């Protein structure tokens, strides 16, 4: 939206309020300013975000890119009237895909579509995106807010984002580095993150659960617990790469732990994972019990308490765990890599 634009009577009658959009832009500026990096270049027109790479800093740089949304978790945010954390979820979904390759997230752009621009609500959403970028160390370099009256209800919105990162060509992580004998390290999730919310909403509806109800075994209001934002691991993973011999990462998103970890394995090995090394957060047991969901279905849908996995050389495992502990990331040895056929296999029972 251009500066100083005013809504024409015809456009206003169609449900688009340009003035509200201008107000939203003003409210979000303070949030975006928190994410500034020195490489940003000012584009006076505001049509594009510019980012300068220092040629002296890189030898053979490779750009990495990722795009994602937060799925139907936005419906829960709307139902709870809570819009300040959903943007953290968006950033986590994007930057933690980038860092799997070893790439440092540089910048993000966002896209918010809504039925009606409510400036304060848009600013809350962008504030969450900015907080996520701050946690990841990347710049929020631009974005777009689009008003879609008729296509979406006045209180409905959806958001998506795209991120760009950078990694040296000889430092790209992935399956080709993984070897038998490697150690598999789990990093705790903060909850379901942004995956499985269609099933969560189905359980809530079918079981007649009250999102506003206090649930003692979860330590809070159900809806607030389910809105716990996604853990952003980007800086922790980059610190791990500096401290230990990391061969691969796996970001545990839709499809669960085993299927996502298998993506980071070559066809010549398996990852054997011991369920007894951790106890999933209570929210997973609560959802399984209220929905009558089998362990197989839970593990194929949710992260079950593991949001990111690092595969490291065996002699780097202790160094990796101590680095994560220093960064206040709950982590543990979950398994080992053995000769196999490219599978991640869960064995045993949880604590």
TrEMBL record:
GO terms for cellular component: cytosol. It is found in: Cytoplasm. It is an enzyme of class 6 (ligase). Its EC number is 6.3.3.1. Its main location: cytoplasm. It catalyses: 2-formamido-N(1)-(5-O-phospho-beta-D-ribosyl)acetamidine + ATP = 5-amino-1-(5-phospho-beta-D-ribosyl)imidazole + ADP + phosphate + H(+). It comes from the Bacteria. Residues 179-342 form the PurM-like C-terminal domain. One of its GO terms (molecular function) is phosphoribosylformylglycinamidine cyclo-ligase activity. SUPFAM superfamilies: PurM C-terminal domain-like, PurM N-terminal domain-like. Pfam families: AIRS, AIRS_C. Residues 62-167 form the PurM-like N-terminal domain. Keywords: ATP-binding, Cytoplasm, Ligase, Nucleotide-binding, Purine biosynthesis. GO terms for biological process: 'de novo' IMP biosynthetic process; adenine biosynthetic process. NCBIfam families: purM. Belongs to the AIR synthase family. This is Phosphoribosylformylglycinamidine cyclo-ligase.
């Amino acid at each position: 939206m251009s500066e100083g634009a005013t809504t024409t009577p015809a456009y206003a009658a169609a449900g688009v309020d340009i003035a509200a959009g201008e107000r939203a832009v003003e409210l979000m500026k303070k949030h975006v300013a928190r994410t500034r990096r020195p490489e940003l270049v000012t584009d006076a027109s505001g049509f594009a975000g510019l980012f300068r790479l220092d040629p002296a800093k890189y030898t053979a740089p490779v750009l990495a890119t990722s795009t994602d949304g937060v799925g139907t978790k936005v419906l829960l945010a709307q139902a709870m009237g809570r819009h300040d954390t959903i943007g953290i979820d968006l950033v986590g979904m994007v930057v933690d895909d980038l860092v799997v390759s070893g790439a440092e997230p540089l910048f993000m752009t966002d896209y918010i579509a809504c039925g009606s621009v409510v400036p304060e609500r848009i600013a809350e959403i962008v504030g969450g995106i900015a907080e996520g970028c701050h946690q990841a160390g990347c710049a929020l370099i631009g974005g777009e807010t689009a008003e879609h009256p008729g296509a979406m209800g006045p209180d409905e919105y959806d958001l998506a984002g795209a991120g760009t990162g950078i990694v040296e060509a000889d430092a790209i992580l992935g399956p080709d580095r993984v070897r038998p004998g490697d150690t598999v390290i789990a990093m705790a999730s903060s909850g379901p993150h942004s995956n499985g919310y269609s099933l969560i909403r189905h359980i809530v509806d079918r079981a007649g659960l009250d999102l506003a109800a206090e649930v003692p075994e979860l330590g809070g209001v159900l809806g607030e617990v389910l809105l716990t934002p996604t853990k952003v691991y980007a800086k922790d993973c980059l610190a791990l790469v500096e401290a230990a011999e990391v061969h691969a990462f796996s970001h545990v998103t839709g499809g669960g732990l085993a299927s996502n970890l298998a993506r980071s394995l070559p066809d010549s090995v398996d990852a054997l994972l011991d369920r007894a090394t951790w106890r999933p957060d209570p929210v997973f047991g609560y959802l399984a019990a209220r929905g009558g969901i089998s362990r197989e279905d839970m593990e194929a849908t949710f992260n079950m308490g593991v949001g990111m996995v690092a595969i490291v050389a065996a002699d780097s495992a202790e160094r990796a765990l101590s680095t994560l502990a220093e960064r206040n990331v709950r982590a543990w040895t979950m398994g080992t890599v053995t000769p196999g056929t490219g599978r991640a296999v869960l064995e045993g029972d949880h604590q």
